[in-house]
Amino acid sequence: MIKGIGNDIIEISRIEKVILNKRFLEKYFTPNENKLFETKNYRGETIAGNFAVKEAVSKVLGTGFVNFTPIDVEVLRDDKGKPYVVLYNGAKDLARQLDISTIHVSISHSRDNVTAIAVGE
What's the pLDDT score for residue 21? Predict the structure, then answer.
């Protein structure tokens, strides 16, 4: 059963500017995400996509970033490049309270924008 949906859109250029500051990457992304960005040589649209997923997941949970932070939502890729989410700390606790066991995500981008959708079931 669907328990929540969320979406987000972000300008790629906005993320490309802030990722020049390593502190941004450390504050908003887990070590696993940062390792993925480095080893796969991901560009701005992929990092923006991860950020948009974090925002979409916060909407699935119905709170925005209340009682958890963006780093509590980890966005990784499977062997075929499909994004998936791992929750930690407050985000994991909130999902458990809402009886959400799985969050499906999808990311798309154009030249200028990235959009992400998340569905909790």
Answer: 83
